[in-house]
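Sanity check. The docking grid for 6-O-phosphono-beta-D-fructofuranose depends on where the pocket ends up, so I'm generating a full predicted complex first rather than guessing from homology. Inputs follow.
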Amino acid sequence: MIRRVGILTAGGDSPGLNAAIRAVGKSAQGHHGMEMIGFRDGFRGLMENRTMRLDGNVLSGILTLGGTILGTSRDKPHRMRVDGETVDMTRTIIENYRRNRLDVLICLGGGGTQKNALHLQQHGLNVITLPKTIDNDVAQTDTTFGFDTALGIATEAIDRLHSTAHSHHRIIVVEIMGHRAGWLALGAGIAGGADVILLPEIPYSTERVAQAIRQRVQSGKTFSIVAVAEGARSREQAEMIAAARKQKMEASSKKEKKRAKQQLASLEAHHSGNHTVQLSEQLELLTGLESRVTILGHLQRGGAPSAADRLLATRLGTACTELVAAGKYGVMVAARGEQTEAVALEKVAGQKKLVPLDHPWVISAKRVGTSFGD
Ligand code: F6P
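Predicted complex below; grid placement will be based on this.
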């Protein structure tokens, strides 16, 4: 029996996606003799039945390319914007899966994609996922592809910021991606030698950050680098979020619940930049030093994947087609040391791998004198 494999990439793009598409495609078609079909722009392309042939020619020369040749989107099968309305398009997606006579759909994505894949599996489709995201926050896998590349880019940025901060005796606050998880800011902060690292997992006191910078000045170091994850929050902001969450839980009427939900959403909203600029201004006031802001933004997601990400994507992609050949579905292909492991989607979806407060990276950073503002 020749298996027919569908593949899509969903969520924010990430270096290594093309390496993974290539690995799945080459091993599925070349090694296992399967047929493969790509869907464009994530679940939206599957809903609209927009396909792409993925034969040998298309798969050649993409190992080193950034982005995804399939295109991506953040659309969810059960909540898709269609003609200005949010609609559940699960049924159409199932119809297109059947129309294309698929045996399995492979979804390359981060946390949101794991949930969407589980949703489709619960509606009777065969699904396998691969974990990608520069945030490294997918549960049950050692790491995700994209993270290593972004780590290199953010580290190089911090390296470069050092010389200009040093020359001008300034603070430079560098914002690093990571809305809920601080892996990227933590890793790049350590590797780049940031003096302060602020993470979503550790609410900070602005005064403690200023104190750390003043102490550096006293010891003759008139510049400081502050690496801040975009989702980092001060203690006051974290308290407001916790109170809003409680309010939402305790709301008795529908109206109250809606209001509490809106308030929480606005507090948790992803406002890259605003918060970092505010922090920089406060640090100027509290330390008397000049401060500048650098927001790395999507630079961290663009361009060629690192060697480590190419390798990881190739390992996960080829392991994925072994699972297809064995008919093992409803799983994510996780990285486990040198090996890979099939983890049930139920164990992954809805979970987030945050930085534990006692993680060895946090402890090492503290040992070398890095402040977390706590
Ligand atoms: O999920 C990866 C990520 O890069 C996050 O770090 C960031 O918060 C988010 O995507 C940005 O999303 P978008 O590109 O949709 O603005």
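Relevant for the grid: The domain at 151-301 is CATH 3.40.50.460 (Rossmann fold).
Also worth noting: Residues 12, 110, 133-135, 177-179, 230, 270, 301 surround 6-O-phosphono-beta-D-fructofuranose (CB under 6 Å).
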